Amino acid sequence: MTQTIQSGNVSAVIDLLGGQLLSFEKDGKEYIWQRNPKYWGSCAPLLFPVIARLKDKKLTVHGKDYPMTMHGFVRDSMLQIAEKSENSVTMFMTNTPETEKLYPFHFRFSVTFTLEGDKLTTSFAIENTGKEEMLFCLGGHPAFNVPIAAGEQFTDYQLEFEKEEILESNHVNDDESISASKKDMILDSGRILPLKRNLFNNDAMIFENIESRRVDLVHKTTGKGIRFCYPDFTTLAVWTRGEPSDAPYVCLEPWLGMGFRDNETSDLEQKYDVQHLMPGSVFTASFSAEIID
């Protein structure tokens, strides 16, 4: 079941299954990857209560192990509608006996999609409804079409960062752990990173503690594409398939947390950038994508 929101000639379609953004269109032009399983069968999963892979595919909380799939369980859960208007929809889920087999905390997970002009904002509200401190990670994973227009090439596009950056990506090891110390130099100085397929040969580029809170994914000649803002997130991952793939999308992933690092165990409390939320408290964060045309 899907929900459609509209702002003038811009629309977005969101699936109640996982709160996944299925479409972001302006004047009939689609900006979201349309889930060809030849390359990747998703397009914009929401990541909660973990990000990416876990060590031994389990989460340890207070000494007890829980099975957990990649990116957590929200992506596979049916959400309910809390509020709906022409240009906005809020969806939510709460803990159930089934989620407690995977994650022992009591919570309410809410996500709101709001269209204002050409900008789509995804806003999270995580409430701790239990009686103990809650630990979690949170992220987004939207995939944008690259190239966007017919006749263009993947290499016609580039990332333009808000600030001058030295971009070093956490190396992904052979066992799929993320190195806490080894970094791959991606950009030694500057704001512009031209897209090349071999940038992704080691999996995602993972930029922890990045200075910029905005990046434009745009055609290097026309300047058209997507402006992506992530004011509340400390890590930005950028992912698509590496060589020899020709996967026609790029994911811009704002993260609070990370997949399992090579200096971590499966203990949730030890995870990099894990968030702590006291009983009765609400955590909020948002990111946005704006069409540049």
What's the short version?
0% of the residues lie in helices and 50% in strands. The protein has 293 residues and is mainly β.
- What are the segments in which pLDDT stays under 50 over at least 5 consecutive residues? none
Percent of residues in beta strands = over 45%
Order of helices and strands: EEEEEEEEEEEEEEEEEEEEEEE
CATH topology: Beta-galactosidase, Chain A, domain 5
Mean pLDDT, to the nearest integer, reads: 97
What is the level 1 CATH name? Mainly Beta
Supply the helix-strand structural class. mainly beta
Total helix count? 0
Radius of gyration in whole Å, from Cα?
A: 18 Å
Pfam families: Aldose_epim (PF01263)
GO biological process, one term: carbohydrate metabolic process
Protein name: Aldose 1-epimerase family protein
GO molecular function: carbohydrate binding; isomerase activity
